């Protein structure tokens, strides 16, 4: 079967990573969670006191980029690759609400985006890849054979994220999560460098009222249709 590149973009907490993992497993493709890469950089900035609620030392972070090594290492028990920052597994640490509060600010830094986009494009050289993020279909892989743009209401996404954090034992309120979702939407769509927009040739999917199985079936059908035509 012909191998293609699948780019999945969309707002935060729309289930992009879940869908991408499902597709990669079904198609035996490589899966890359670009959001985890930006989260890891944000976590690095937090570790080194480069970002707080009232300040962001952008120049210092840019200078430290050469000290940041990001790797995905496959975990056979979980069935997907986890994020490593400078040799340390940070998969759990980067999924907190604290990191979520800073990741959009870090992702807006042009030098950070340039460094990570270069790595992402290198990962997709041989196709057979599913990558999700904010600018995959517009910047990273503008020639991807299939582009999906996922959306849902802010309230629906906040509830999903809140439930997920509660299951992990995080002590957060729904109001706090909703504010984070709304704030991230604004920052992602208004940043100067590679803002979140839907590509002209992307297929938009509003999954406010779709479960994971229904969404997966619909997108897998799109994949099969595209593969037949390339």
Would you give an account of this structure?
The chain has helices at residues 16-27, 34-47, 58-64, 97-107, 110-123, 136-140, 154-167, 174-190, 212-229; strands at residues 5-10, 30-33, 51-52, 55-56, 70-75, 80-85, 88-89, 129-133, 146-151, 203-206. 49% of the residues lie in helices and 19% in strands. The chain is built from nine helices and ten strands. It starts with a strand and ends with a helix. The radius of gyration is 17 Å and the shape is globular. The strands form three sheets. The chain has a five-stranded parallel beta sheet. The chain is α/β, with parallel strands linked by helices.
Q: Average pLDDT across residues?
A: 94
Number of strands: 10
SSE pattern, N- to C-terminal: EHEHEEHEEEHHEHEHHEH
Rg computed from alpha carbons, rounded to a whole number of angstroms = 17 Å
Largest sheet strand order? 2-8-1-9-10
Structural class: alpha/beta
- Residue share in helices? 40-55%
Q: How many helix segments? A: 9
Keywords: ATP-binding, Cytoplasm, Kinase, Nucleotide-binding, Transferase
Binding site for ATP: 10-18
Main location: cytoplasm
InterPro entries: Cytidylate_kin, Cytidylate_kinase_dom, P-loop_NTPase
